[in-house]
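Following up on my earlier thread - several people asked me to post the actual chain instead of describing it. Fair enough. Here it is, all 93 residues.
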Amino acid sequence: GHKNYATYMQVVRRCLPPDGLFLLHTIGGRLSQARTDPWITRYIFPNGMLPSARQIASAAEGVLSLEDWHNFPYDYDRTLMAWYENFERAWPQ
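Reply from S.P.:
Thanks for posting it. Predicted structure:
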C-alpha cells in the first residue's frame, strides 16, 4: 500500500547499479488515496493500490530520478471494458 511506496523506491535504488535504469509499469489513479475502492479490491486488484502520479513522485523524490513518463488512459479504458465483458459473461459460472 501507499505506506510502503518510499521503502519500495529505496529498495529499487539499493538494487540498481550506479548507472542502472528502472521501469515502473503501473496502473494508477487520478487522486491520491490511502485505500482502494472495495469493488476494485474484491474483483480487480485484491490487496492492490492505485497510486497517483503525486504518490509515485513523492516516494521517488530524492531517491530516484524520473527520466520519462507516459500515460495511456484511452488504451486502458478499452482493456477495462474487455475485462468487464469477460467478467459479466463468466459470472453465471
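Residues 73-90 form the longest helix (18 residues). That should answer part of your original question.
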